[in-house]
Amino acid sequence: MNYAALKPDTQSIVVDEVFPHAPETVWKALTTGDLIARWLMAPTGFEAVEGNRFTYRTTPAGAWDGLIRCEVLEVTPNERLVYAWTGGDEGNVGYGSRLDTVVTWTLSRVDEGTRVCLVHSGFVLPTNESAFTNMSEGWKKVVRNLDAIAAEQGPPSLH
User: Fold this and answer.
1) Per-position DSSP letters for the chain, written without gaps between them
2) 19-45: pLDDT as tens digits
3) pTM of this prediction exceeds 0.70
4) Which residues lie closer than 8 Å to 6 by C-beta, 6 or more apart?
5) How large is the average pLDDT for residues 120-143?
6) HSE-up of 114 (CA within 13 Å, CB side)?
7) What Rg value do the Cα atoms of the chain yield, rounded?
């Protein structure tokens, strides 16, 4: 992986929300495989351990097998989870084009509960235009789903 997401000439998706749950509750939903499957996709081999490699499977396209290959880059329990998110194929245009990005989840305790900030960075436009557009909307829904799953995990909401 070349971590294109760290280059300044790329685009990022940012979703920033406050959930009425403790950071520990959100962290559990963010890092438990069975729970991830409920708000995003079922991961194969996920562990919140730096260097761990895992995959998600989605709809294949052209030369791409539909696997999203990930590697955990950083873990600070109850605060930060960062992983590489790669997929697609160089030969594809639009959906399924080569994607080499990074997903960063940051949790911060606030009076109302937890501020959850998702940054999915490294979209190279126009090559990744399809993924950037679709995932911009998709991540908003995913973060709302994460909130709902977190609500089931911990003590009653802070409000």
Assistant:
1) ---GGGSTTSEEEEEEEEESS-HHHHHHHHH-HHHHHHHS---BS--SSTT-EEEEE---BTTB-SEEEEEEEEEETTTEEEEEEEE-BTT--STTB-EEEEEEEEEEEETTEEEEEEEEEEE-TTTTHHHHHHHHHHHHHHHHHHHHHHHHHSSSP--
2) 999 999 999 999 999 999 999 999 999
3) yes
4) 102, 121, 122
5) 95
6) 27
7) 16
